[in-house]
Amino acid sequence: MASAVSSHPPLSVALVGATGLVGETILEVLAERDFPVGRLLPLASRRSSGRTLRFRGEELAVREAEPAAFEGVDLVFFAATGSLSKELAPEAVTRGAVVIDKSNTWRMDERVPLVIPEINPAALEEHEGIIACPNCTTIGVAMALEPLRRAAGLRRVVVTTLQATSGAGREASEELEAQLAALARNEEPVATVFPSPIAHNVLPLCERFDPDDDGYSTEEMKLLHETRKILGEPDLDVSMTCVRVPVPVGHSASLLVECERALSPEKARRALDAFPGVRVVDDCARNVFPTPRDVAGGDEVLVGRVRRDLTSERLWLWQVVDNLRKGAATNGVQIAETLIERGLL
Amino acid sequence: MASAVSSHPPLSVALVGATGLVGETILEVLAERDFPVGRLLPLASRRSSGRTLRFRGEELAVREAEPAAFEGVDLVFFAATGSLSKELAPEAVTRGAVVIDKSNTWRMDERVPLVIPEINPAALEEHEGIIACPNCTTIGVAMALEPLRRAAGLRRVVVTTLQATSGAGREASEELEAQLAALARNEEPVATVFPSPIAHNVLPLCERFDPDDDGYSTEEMKLLHETRKILGEPDLDVSMTCVRVPVPVGHSASLLVECERALSPEKARRALDAFPGVRVVDDCARNVFPTPRDVAGGDEVLVGRVRRDLTSERLWLWQVVDNLRKGAATNGVQIAETLIERGLL
């Protein structure tokens, strides 16, 4: 993969949301993967503009994200709020840039490909300027499901997620840290980002409840709709509860999967391990299973505890992903690399 | 309930495992509920004997648990290791005591009632000296299932648990604390009780893997077999993954329940709220749902996030229980109270 990408002429790249956790991780991943960045333009909301950040050893000033900033830009990563993306992504496209958007704004738009490069790279061929990067939780779950889908078809999935605080942004991560420090001093933890303390606790709510969703969180609805779109299975039964846990980085998911055709745990493991970007970490005899700490800082989706349900042919899996890297930044950069490989950028 | 119990002549009560977390909580609960304790005899393994503890303001020496200690004792709570319970519970019964055992040793013995007093108190009538208290995880899950079973029958249950460190004992709780302190100092957390660090992490393993269980943990197998026995549903489909989370107290469970007959979320909430020991805490519009911090120190099983599955008639629930109280100590003391009420003690 690296050759077509690394020999590509340098691109002018803008990054909206450069000061956030995902933005910061995109900068790391671009540098690590030697992505052909010529000029890098860090942008942010007015509140965060004026700061500086480092990219490949160089200090860069963060400018305010506004339409004129996209003049002459080839590629824009949006890693900011949905409203900024809604307003500015079309402006960037109008000026000739390709947009890879991490927000929820464009994902379910029929004109917008929603892409995990290992799963549905061909969807990029149809892009009209904006490409959506799935939600961090969806990416981990879809990466674990696709090898099983290809091997034996999918009928039904039941999933409970255990999501890291960094999935809710920098302030959420800082809130966990501050609450743990307060508890260590025997003080009451103060919750402002999350509706209840997250330290020493778990919350059966990720993001927020939408009155239209009849008791579901917005995060849960994303998991249903995005998974269907990415896997190309518009009627797939996905049942889910999304839970926030006091973990800084690394989303986990406990998955019960019903396939269309028989699939033994052993064959499932082989299918998973053979899939690019997925690795099986599964040896009960030696207490080996994947945990959030194991994926933090890495790009692989790890899967373990693959076993047959005790009362049916269904399969249990345990899946873990670094929500900031493969769940966000790395997947976005991989989309850009795939665009280059396919001559689309 | 209190009257038959409080007017009962004082009993000679022994507590094996008095120095552990559950033992300590049993002492609290006995005092709180004014259980008719005449003499209290705190016992422990040789290693822990010789310490002292306080009960109702009195300082008591912890003696070594050995057969002769049970002479003249009416009631023994076992809150110790399974091996101590296996060896000593029959010795206590031989000497005329009734045993309420919290270990896993006797639960699946056909001669031993496995009791949650709100669910199957009549099973106590058949006791032959030993009565088993279910696993802390099973108690929470069964308390959430029984009201639905009575209202509409149960066909299938899929559950992922998120279990507190105190469920693995005092050393496990201390390990979480020590690891969080190490991380706060930017040091590597050291894991000795758990196979990997539990701080800032989740582990898809509770207790241990048994080579006979084909990829399942002992905790998961308990949840299947105990739930079936308590609910009197020997063929109930229960599918589960048990996960350890960095929470000191309070086990949570994410449950997807398929009933035999139609049951709306509203009717499920009513059935749950009407059941003794269960309270519904469920108001998405105001971000109200139960969390481990909400149950810590209390005896109620809290249930929230009751909603219909997006793709079927099944119901999702979120259930939380204080694993040391209703999950262990309180349930044990309630068993003793029920024995008194039924003239069995």
Would you write up a description of this structure?
2 copies of one chain form a homodimer. Chain A is of the alpha/beta class and 345 residues long. Chain A folds into 2 domains: 145 residues, NAD(P)-binding Rossmann-like Domain (Rossmann fold), CATH 3.40.50; 186 residues, Dihydrodipicolinate Reductase, domain 2. Chain A contains 9 helices and 14 strands. In chain A, helix 8 links the parallel strand 12 and strand 13. In chain A, helix 4 packs parallel to helix 6 and helix 4 crosses helix 7. The relative contact order of chain A is 0.15. The model of chain A has no long low-confidence stretch (mean pLDDT 97).
Core attributes:
6-stranded parallel β-sheet, 6-stranded mixed β-sheet, 345 residues, alpha/beta, Dihydrodipicolinate Reductase, domain 2, 23% strand, homodimer, 9 helices, 31% helix, 2 domains
Structural class of chain A: alpha/beta
Give the chain pair forming the largest contact, with residue counts. A-B, 58 and 58 residues
Q: Rough shape of chain A?
A: globular
CATH architecture of the largest domain in chain A: 2-Layer Sandwich
* Contiguous uncertain segments of 5+ residues of chain A: none
CATH homologous superfamily assignment of the largest domain in chain A: Dihydrodipicolinate Reductase, domain 2
Quaternary state reads homodimer
Tell me the count of domains of chain A.
2
What is the radius of gyration of chain A?
Answer: 20 Å
SSE pattern of chain A, N- to C-terminal: HEHEEEEEHEEHEHHEEHEHEEH
Write the CATH fold name of the largest domain in chain A. Answer: Dihydrodipicolinate Reductase, domain 2
Give the class-level CATH name of the largest domain in chain A.
Alpha Beta
Q: Residue-averaged pLDDT of chain A, rounded? A: 97
Q: Report the sheet with the most strands of chain A, covering strand number, pairing sense and barrel closure.
A: 6 strands, parallel
Percentage of β-strand residues of chain A:
15-25%
> Helix count of chain A?
9
Work out the helicity level of chain A.
25-40%
> Strands across the major sheet of chain A, in which order?
5-2-1-6-7-8
Distance linking N and C termini of chain A: 15 Å
